[in-house]
Amino acid sequence: MINGNKVLFSGMQATGNLTLGNYLGALKNWVSLADEYECYYSVVDMHSITVRQDPAVLRKRARALLTLYIAAGIDPEKNCLYYQSHVSGHAELAWILNCFTYMGELNRMTQFKDKAAKHADNINAGLFTYPVLMAADILLYQADVVPVGIDQMQHLELTRDIAQRFNAIYGDVFTVPQAYVGKVGAKIMSLQDPAKKMSKSDENPNASIYLMDDADTIRRKCKRAVTDSEGIILYRDEQPGVKNLLDIYCACTGKAPEEAVKEFEGCGYGQLKEAVGDAVVGVLEPLQTRFKELEKDKAYIDTIIKNNAERAAYTASKTLRKVQKKVGFPERVR
Ligand code: TYM
Hints:
Layout: E1 7-12, H1 20-33, E2 38-43, H2 45-48, H3 55-71, E3 80-83, H4 89-98, H5 103-107, H6 110-118, H7 125-140, E4 145-147, H8 153-170, E5 178-180, H9 215-223, H10 240-253, H11 257-263, H12 269-296, H13 298-327
Parallel strand pairs: 1-2, 2-3, 4-5
Helix pairs in contact: 3-12, 4-7, 4-13, 7-8, 9-12, 10-12
The protein binds ligand 1.
């Protein structure tokens, strides 16, 4: 809560090509919630360097991501869109929270285990304490709600634990945040292996629909999606490939799964895949057009970056000063 307003915080990494999973699981909900809350949407570039990055590519992707937030429909005049690295409070609070987080808790994080296995040559301390930086992101803004996909729930739970632990020692310093997970689209699966989530880092390009894929590519990927040999369109766990296609269809069209199942009664998988392809193109084409327009307006994007970083830094500094005082750091002499 800030000045009586409920606060929303969320972030995305500018690593790899964003997928339909990022859009349907997170970004789409950000847009629909923006009017109800005071919103902070960060491009979390500090999280990105836990895995080696090409600096020029990271810079380019970070800007593209911020532009994409606006293209998706988030109004940058009403909401605060900014780069995490422009607000030093994230790192400062993360340090303090590191001292209130246990190694055992971090050891249990499944994302750490997955990433450590994938990047065995670079299991750095940042990768290990990544969830603490994420907790700092959220707690710095006293967020009430955090819209994320299901894969981030474990980090959200840890954030809540850290906040409650800190509050138990020092009084009510942090708002304890709630996750917001959409009814459909919270876990979009790979089109090639519906047991795995759709991921930016998947090596098989047919497994993911990227937000910048053109219409033909989207339709082709949908056509090639792995289904099963049951030959019937039902929304159930026994048919994970079909269920995933229905999820994508529903998240794109706003329909409920039961409604979609009725609509596809008697249809073959080919028809379902075609309808999913059309629904995805219907959502992504306008986003791409708007993105391309915005990208050209460099001065406008620069103004957003500057103004919003200042706004975010101001809010962040208020929480940070309070926390620093609570833990016993000496007051500044003016
Ligand atoms: P990231 O960048 O991996 O993903 C951004 C958002 O997209 C969601 N998502 C998905 N949703 C549904 N289906 C999928 N296949 C799928 N893949 C990704 C993620 O759940 C996420 O909401 N650690 C975070 C970024 C972060 C953050 C934060 C988020 C840093 N600080 C504070 C919220 C609050 C991450 O790596 O997300």
